[in-house]
Amino acid sequence: MTELLQKAIQQAQALPEDEQDRVARLMLHEIETVTQNGGEPGRQSAWEIVQEAFKDIPEEEWEKLPRDGAAEHDHYLYGTPKRYS
């Protein structure tokens, strides 16, 4: 075991149990990522994360969203008058 890994484990052991679990989940996730990518840490782009999160939403649900949602977000979130009607 490397010195760095020993230090990380010692510091993690000093944390409260809920924080130990959080650190352990992060470590396990990174180990799984490295293992799945043949030793290379894999990083998803923000777009890949969004695609994964929204992959099960049917197309008909997306079609219900307003086309001017980005430009008129204040209107849809807070009820302010539309700016570009």
Task: Please sum up the structure shown.
It contains five helices and no strands. It has helices at residues 3-13, 17-36, 46-54, 59-63, 73-78.
List the helices and strands and how they pair.
Layout: H1 3-13, H2 17-36, H3 46-54, H4 59-63, H5 73-78
The Cα radius of gyration reads 22 Å
- Strand count: 0
* Residue runs with pLDDT of under 50 for 5 or more positions: none
Which sequence of SSEs, written as H and E, runs from N to C?
Answer: HHHHH
Key traits:
85 residues; mainly alpha; 2 domains; 5 helices; elongated
Describe the protein in words.
- It is a single chain.
- By secondary structure, this protein is mostly helical.
- It is 60% helix and 0% strand.
- It has helices at residues 3-13, 17-36, 46-54, 59-63, 73-78.
- The protein is elongated.
